[in-house]
């Protein structure tokens, strides 16, 4: 019993000494800044080296990435605006709107390179381009980790590190500081959490990112001077913001919009997609029959889709040891990649009664042609039916979900009131207005198209199929200005429209240089005079050029 007591005491002492030795050694290492043993460090360095030695070939998507602004197809006006906003002596913050995969990121990256090469630009040759995607930023109210704005690594989260043991909070710079002196490209900026957005706006204003921590004290002598400096004066964050979004302008905070130059990138038309396909096939060294790029354009909605398709085509050809690609390759690739053929809405050129092409903008996705159909029955009854509209549309945003109600129905009511100026009496007619295609219809800007369809159905005057219109209608028949005219004109051109009427107040000289004819009118009488000028419909033309129900023998 006596011997075993001594034995136990000896074992305890040995255990204690070994523990003390271990803690002494590790404390010594940490004091010298050594967090891991030299052997472990060596092992990890070797692992990194081994990983770096592995190289796959450069994906075609990288090879085909535009290397200069001239290689970006179909965005000439957007690029011109980007250059003006960023390449001068006083670069602006910028917002780029446009559908996915049409070259927004590629253009932003390249325009900084161009700015850097200019003498007058404040961007140095070393100016960084820092890219971050707002959809990957998770908002954390405690701000423990914020890759965009930066955060403070408090000692409690630093564990056994030197700063943690000394109780020193450690500022972690975010993308706003990493972009100092260059460009911060924030993709999908519309998805940013509202609190993060407000903080970002503050950084834009101050050009400094500020850090706070309850562990920070000015009196703490153990805090290194550079950390004191950061807590007291902030960290420089002097950059130009380029935000890109697929949302429409009204979905972005006005406070952000008012600080930025807004630039719109267009959806890519068939010709642009064909050009991108051709460039991609050439870079991949593939041969193809003439007309093949046009077939690719049937499946690809944008530049990224095109590059992806070309990449898959190239992979197929390579697997089979071929240097050419065929239509059957394209069909297989499109089928397996679920590339749906693009519905290329082309307008019918023939004149029809009660059928008119309107124009609309679908969020950030660009313009589209929207058909309006009207049927009037003179059956001595009064009735109005509006069909084909999406009455309610759910909008998702970082603020939550909201419902947007279509006001197409009330716009039709306005249209009928204006039509009363032309002899229409509600009590005598059952009116049916239809919007084929089930699209969310923004009533007001489709006002003139609805009016023309109703006027045509009422009078029996056929409307040429290659005409399209946009414009809001007032109760007195004035045509009021609308938004998104450029996008609408691009969509009209793509759909084969040859003449478009827009509100007088929207007229710009540049529209006069477009392939299609752009005309404008201030009120419905002017519009009707222009559309039906010298054109016989139902055998009756009024001296003013405006057709009346009386003159035409209305459809019963
Ligand atoms: N207009 C274009 N001209 C030439 N290539 C294009 C064009 N648009 C897209 N591409 C090709 O698609 C790739 C992806 O385009 P990019 O990332 O610039 O699109 P994005 O508009 O920024 O899309 P997202 O909104 O999805 O980020 C580019 O690297 C390029 O290869």
UniProtKB/TrEMBL annotation:
Catalytic activity of the protein: Hydrolysis of proteins in presence of ATP
All residue ranges annotated as the Sigma-54 factor interaction domain in the record: 94-259
Transmembrane segments: 6-24
Organism superkingdom: Bacteria
Matching Pfam families: AAA, Lon_C
Domain Lon proteolytic: start-end pairs: 350-534
Alphabetized Gene3D superfamilies for the sequence: 3.30.230.10, P-loop containing nucleotide triphosphate hydrolases
The enzyme's E.C. designation: 3.4.21.53
UniProt entry keywords in alphabetical sequence: Hydrolase, Membrane, Protease, Serine protease, Transmembrane, Transmembrane helix
Residue positions of the active site: 445, 488
PANTHER family membership: ATP DEPENDENT LON PROTEASE FAMILY MEMBER (PTHR10046)
Family of the protein in this entry: Belongs to the peptidase S16 family.
Protein name: endopeptidase La
Species whose genome carries this gene: Anaerotignum lactatifermentans
